[in-house]
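Regression check, C2E case 676:
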Amino acid sequence: MQHHDPANPETPQVQVRSCIETPDYSVEDLPNALLDIASFSHMETDSDGFYRALHRVIDKLTQVDSLLIGLVDPETSQLTIPCHLNQAAQDHDYLDPDTLERRAILNLVVQSRELVHINRDDIYRIKISRGLDPEISQIPEDAIGLPLLEGNRIVGVMLLESFAKDFRYSDTEKEMMWQISAQVAKSLHQKDIIGTLMHSKANLKNDNRYLQGLLDEREEIHQRLLHNATHDALTGLPNRALFLKRLRQVIHRSRMNDQVGFAVLFVDLDRFKVVNDSLGHPVGDGLLVEVGCRLRHCVHSSALVARLGGDEFCVLLTVDTSPEVVKMVAKRILENLKQPMYLDGQRVVTSSSIGIAFGHERYETAIDVLRDADTALYQAKSLGRSNFSIFDQSMRDDAVLRMETEQALRQAVEEDQITVHYQPIVDLQTGQLVSFEALARWFHPTLGHVPASTFIPIAEEIHLISQLTGNVFEKAISQVSRWRCEFPGLNELGLNVNISPMQVESEGFVESIQDFLTGVGLPARSLKLEVTESMLLNNPKSATKVLTELHEMNVRLALDDFGTGYSSLSCLNSLPLDELKIDLSFVQNIVDDDRSDAIVQMIVALAQVMDLQVVAEGVETVEQLQILRDLGVHRGQGYLFGTPASGDSIYKQLFEANPRRNSVTDTIPFVPARFN
Ligand code: C2E
Ligand code: MG
Ligand code: MG
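Current build output:
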């Protein structure tokens, strides 16, 4: 069928094929070609590749020197030419594809939606009609234009040109190309869809990846938060919360099944604060990390090792929890933690104490178990360093008693029920009374007389010691000042007061002492502060500074309990001392034990070298006195001279010894008479 519009001279007379005609597939390759084109839409990733592949297929079916695809913009209906493959040039755009004559053919196809078959002469005429020089560019011998139809809608045009001399597209070829164009339209559409799909899939994938990334990140944060919430940041060990959770689970299991046993080992480092304060926090941190590692190595892999906080660690044993095995584990831990550690280039030696609580049906909560392990730990600590203790009910009773004592002590201090007793210190050579040591006394209506060795450490622990000793100090200083005034023979009478580390560290301690002294008119040299090594434990620098300040004010310093763990040789170097008080344990053994004798000798020699006074504590017998005098000990204190007594009682004794007040100085006996 020829399609020609005679009214329009631009329209050449061309052969147009109806798209309804039944195709006659005489070429075997057509089905494969169609399949190929269909598959290109999936395989070829870009349009360029698709067009090239299409060209190859068409080229196998027919003569095609130039293949041109035009696409109709669905919105503007404008025709664009995304592809022009030219066989002669083996490449794109050998000739300008967008020539006027081509445009004319393409437009004709778009308008007719039919196959347009056009030959060289037709094209020639078109050129002439458009005022173009027909010789200026190569004119194809034959050409067919095919609409690319998607249903009724035209989406583009396909133009095949042949430059072969006298070539004419046959009907069969046109038929095949009609089929091909239909498949091309489909493939382009599919390609479009697939492209969009691919694009959105990629986007989706990206979106998914992004979402997944967010989820992963969230999960990671969640896990991290969870880990942080249940683990100790420094050591990486489970923390208190996780420990208690696991312990609760074990308690639950053991209540369901009495075969399930467990043991909790509460591990606490001895004097960790000292390490932290003296060697610095980084070393302290390193120590805790190392302790965590060592603990893990000491126990079975099934055990849970946790850091509860500070220097407190806990181990939960659930496998083989017989007392023998658990004791063995405790010993292993103690031994292991005693071994030196090398931290930050420093050799650090520490030790630990362990409180053990075994699983028991009475336990309902994890806190109960922990509390009992802690009670046992308290007991272990009181046994000295590097010990373990197993909880038993009597400890609980002790702990309850302690709690009651704490409460009562708070009240006693608050209500000023702590009284002061005075114990004489005498010159062993002259027998003169030289000083009184003020000792705190507490009598409670139900608890009875509570020894100072019991309530002073409690007062220290519950931070009451400053207030307590401050009160003692205030009472004692005014008491001794009154005696000094009343008994002129005692106008050089001194006062010894025990002070605790916490007091020294308290704000304005030096000033308060100065105020007390000025207030009662007592010369600073008559006041002697008794300190122990514990003074240097927490903050040696500041304690030394405060004590040096006091010493510069002329206040004297005595090192109490010398020779015991509470007062060691190291204090001799760091503190501005005036006096050493030999611990009563040596004095009491001095008669029968050569070693105690030797120690006392050594202390006296040391004091001589260092120009210090020596006072013997706990002198109870004349034999002891004799030996101490012979060894050159300057002063003595003990029941032999007088037990600690109340101010009233002392006043009575002083008065009896010296009824004519303000007259005698040397009538105060020191041996064998007593003050009580
Ligand atoms: P300390 O300072 O070494 O006091 C001497 C302790 O030995 C006193 O015990 C005293 O009663 C006791 N004592 C004295 N002579 C003898 C004796 O011949 N034989 C025996 N067996 N013991 C004797 P006390 O009063 O129980 O005080 C114990 C510790 O409590 C004191 O040891 C002191 O460290 C502390 N302390 C007492 N009062 C205070 C105070 O007001 N403040 C502070 N911070 N600590 C105090
Ligand atoms: Mg003392
Ligand atoms: Mg003492």
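Comparison notes: Residues 85 and 91 are 6 Å apart (CA to CA). The mean pLDDT is 85. No diff flagged against the previous build.
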